[in-house]
Fold each of these.
Amino acid sequence: MSVGVMKDSRTTGSLLLEKVAHGYNGLQVVHEVNLAVQPGELVVLVGPSGCGKTTLLNLLSGFLTPVSGTVRTEGLVRTVYQQDGLFPWLTVGENIGMGLRGVKDKGRQERELRELLELIHLGQFRDHYPHQLSGGMRQRVELARVVAGDSDILLMDEPFSALDYQTRIRMRQELVQLLEKRPRTVVFVTHDIEEAVVLADRVLVLSQRPTRIVRELVIQAPRPRNPTDDVVVGATRVILEELGLQVHR
Amino acid sequence: MKKVIPGLLVFIVALFIWWLACRTGVFPAYALPSPGQVLLSFKEEFKAGRLVNDVVASLWRVFVGYYVAALLAIPLGLWLGRQPRVRNALLPMLNFFRFLSPLAWIPFAILWFHIGDKPAFFLIFMSTFFPLVLTVMAAVATIPSIYFRVAHDYKYTGWELLTKVTFPAVLPQLITGLRVTYGIAWVVIVAAEMVGCQDGLGYGIWEARNGLRLDSAVCYMIVIGLIGMGIDRILYQFTKLSNVRWGYER
C-alpha cells in the first residue's frame, strides 16, 4: 500500500456551517443550520424527500452561496451524484483518471488507477464505457473517481438511491471498504434511514422544510455494520420515533 | 450479405417498373429515356470525360463551401450554447436565415461573384451555416448541467472545459447535424450550378435539358444520388467511434 501512505494516512478535510440559511424567492429552504464536520468523519444527513437535503449539499460544495451565514470548507471537495455523473464519452479508466488529474507523476497515476480498479473489482472493465455497465458498476466507478488522487471531502447526494435494494447493501459495504483504504471526510445525504445508520459516525436527522437539524445521533459501533445489528436497529428506532414514523402497538 | 438482399430486390423491382413504363409508352420516348438508353449515354459521357470533370467540380464546390461553413458554425455554436443572452439575441436572426431558401440568394450570388466556383461556394455556405450553428447551439444548451458540475469538481476550466467536456458532450449530435447539413449542401449544389456555373453536375443536367438529351440528365441524376449516398456512408462511419456510441445507444 505505497499509495496509501502518501496522502491517506492523515485526513485533512473539514467542514463548518455557521447559522446557514437559504431560500428561493421568499421560500425558506434551510433554516439556521450549524454543523461542524471533523476530518475523517462520516456524517449522514437523513430526512424526508423535498426537505432541502440537496440544497444543503449544494451549499457545502459551494455551488450555492447561502443567503446568510457562513460555509467554510478546508480541502478539495468532490461530489457523487445519484446517477449519470460519469462522463459517457470516457471509459471507466479515463473517468477514474479524471480524479488523478492533479497527480503529476505518470507512473504514480497508472499505479493508482490500477489499484482503484482493483478496489472496486472492475479491473476487467477499464476500457468499457459507462453505458455498457450496470447501475451498480457505474456508481462504483463514481466512488473510485472521487477518492482518486488528492480529494479531502466527499459529498454524496443519495448515491445509491437509484439502485435496487440488494445492490444498495453491497454498495454500502464497498464504500466502507474503500474509505477504510482511503479515509476521507464524508457528508452523505440520504432518505434511507437504514443506510444512514449502517454508514454513519454521526447521523443528523433533518426536519421538513425549512430544514433544521432536529436530532443528532452518534453511532460508535465499528464498521462494517449489518442492518440487523442491535446498534443499527436501536438507532433506526430512535430516528423513526423522531420522524413520527414509529408505530406504537 | 443478408442485409443487402432486400435492398437489391427493391432496386431490381424499381428498374423493372422504369423499363415497363418505357415499354408501355406512358410518356413519349424523348421525355422518358429507357434504362438501355441511359446505359449508352453513360458510356458516351465517360468517353468524353465530361462526367468525371463535372463530378470533381461539384465535389470541390461542396467541399469548400461546406468546410468553411462548418469551420465557422461549430465554434460559434459551441460558444452561443453557453451564452443564453447572446443566444436569445441572435436566435430570431439565425432562424430567419435558416428558413430562407438558399436559392433565394442566387441573384445576389451571381451579381456579387459572377459565374464560376465562387457563387456556388457562397450558396453552399448560406445553406449549411445557419442550420449547423443552430444544431450545435441547441446541443450545447441541452447538455445536462451535472456534467458542468462534475467538470467544476475536477477543475476543468476555459479551453479544457470546451474541448474535454462541452465538445465531446455534443459530438454525437454534431455528427448527426453534419450528416443532415451535408445532405442540404449536396441538394443545393445542383441548383446552384444550373445558374451560376459552366460545369458541374447541376450544369450537366441543365445542358441535357437544353439539348433535350434526357438520357444524359438521368445519367447525372444517378451519379448525384450515388455520390450523395456514398459520402453519407463515410460520415456515418463517425457514429461508430467508440467515444460517441453512448449518444446513439441510450
Note: The first helix of chain B runs from residue 4 to 24.
Amino acid sequence: MISLARVGKTFKTRRGGHVQALDDVTISIRPGEFVAIVGASGCGKSTLLRMVAGLVLPDIGHLTLDGKLVTGATKGTAMVFQSPTLLPWMNVERNVAFPLSLSGGDGPEARERARVLLHSAGLAGFEHRMPRELSGGMQQRVAICRGLVQQPRILLMDEPFGALDALTREEMSLSLLALWQANPMAVLFVTHSISEAVLLADRVVVMSPRPGRVAEIVEVNLPRPRSFDQEASAEFHRCSKLIRDRIYGGAAHAH
Amino acid sequence: MLTNAADWGRRNLPVIVSTLTFLLGWELLCRGFGIRPFLLPSPSAIWTAVVPVWPNIAMHTVTTLRTVLLGLAASIAISLPLAMLIASSRTMSAAIYPLLVLTQSVPKVALAPILLVALGANEFSRVIITFLVAFFPLVVSSVAGLLAAPPELIELGRSCRATRVQELLRIRLPYALPFVFGGLRVAAALCVVGAVVAEFVGADSGLGYLIQTSMAFFRTPVAFGAVVILAIMGIALFQLVEVIERLLVPWSSNLDSNSNDNN
C-alpha cells in the first residue's frame, strides 16, 4: 500500500549546514499491518512519519501510496502526537469531530461517528467534558479517536504514549490493539520502547542514527490477540534481543 | 447569595482596609499639617468641591469615556487584523514590525499637538491619539498569541488539508484569545491615558480639559476629583475586560489559576 523506495531527506540548519535526516530508506507497509519504528533519538523516525503523512517530501527516492506518488498531505493518513494537543475550547466530542469539520463534514453524522469511537475507546459519558477535565491517558484516547474519525487507511503515531506513566502506557497499548482490530487500517508507530514495539507490532523497523537508516526489520511471530503474558515467551525475547543488538551494535548495514 | 456576598467581602477585605487606611492617612495629613487645599486637598475637601458641580463633572466624564471607548474600539479593529498579517508570514513581520516600533519610539505626548493641528481639534483626532497610545501592546500580545498554537496542532491541520484561512481562524485565533485579552487589559488602561493627553492639548470638554481649566484657577480639589474619576474609569474598564474574558475564554489558564487562588 505505502512504499518508500530508497528515500532520502536532508535539512538545512540555521547556520547554513546540512543534516541528513534519512538516507536510503526502503520500507513497504501492507494494508492492515502494524509496523513499529524503533531507534535512538535523531535517527529520523519522526521525519519518516511526517513523510508518510505528506508533510515532508523526500529529496531523493520515491514515496508512493497505492502506486501514486505522494506530493502533499494525503487523504487516508491521520496523525497522533506525543502530546494530546486537544483544542481547549471544544468539548471531547467536538474535538474528535474537528478534522471532519475542517473539510466541511461537521454534520450529525460526524458527531455520531465521534460518539461511537469514544464509546469503543472507553470514554462513554465523557462526550461533553472539556479536555482539561480529563487525565493525560484519557486525553490521549481522545486524540487517538480524533485520528480514527478520519477513517484513515494508515494511522501514524509519533510516540503516542511517551508522555504517560508506565501503568497507563500498558493499558493504552492494549486499548490501541483493540481499536486497531476493530478498525481496518495499518498503523505506523514510532516509539523508544523495545518491549512496546514487540508487543504491538507485526514488524519492527530498527533505525540507526546520523544519517537515519534502516538497520534491520524484525518480524514478530507472536499470535494475536496479544497480551502481556507473551512477554515471557521465547519469541518475545528473541525479537527484543535482536532489536537491542541492532540499536547498540553500532554498525548499520543497508537492506 | 448571602454566602456569595460574604465571600466577596472576605476576598476583598484587604483592599477595602488598605484603601480606607490610605484615605484616612491622607485626610489626617492634610488636617494635621494644615496643608492648604490648593496645594493638596484632603479627601473631604475634594468631596465637598465635587458634589455641588456633579452635573458638570458627569458631562465631562461622558465626553472622556466616549473618547476612551472609541479609541479602544479603534485599537481592537486595527490591532487584530494587523496582528494576523504579521503572524501570517516572516516577510510581513519583517516589513511591518519595524514601522510599529517606530511609532512606539515617538513620544505620543509630543505628537499630540502636531496631530491636532493637522487633523483639527475634534473628536476624530482625539480618538486617533488615544489609539496611538494604546494599540501597541495589543498588537504585540496578539501576535505572540497567534504564534503560540502548538506546532502539532498546526501539523494536524495541515494533515487534514486545512486551508491557511482555516488554520488562522479555527486554530490560531482561538488559541490567541487569552493573549489578546492580556493585551486588551493594558490597552484599556492606556486608552484613559491617551484620551486625557488628547484633551490636554485640544478639547473644550472632558476630564482632561476640566483638570487644566480648574488648575488655571487653582481649583485643585475639582482637578483631584477628576483624577479620581479617571482612576475609577481605568479600574472599571480593566474589570469589564476581565468579565468579558471570563465569558468568552473560560478555558484560559490565566483565569483558572486566579480562581484556584481564591478557593
Note: The longest helix of chain B spans residues 164-201.
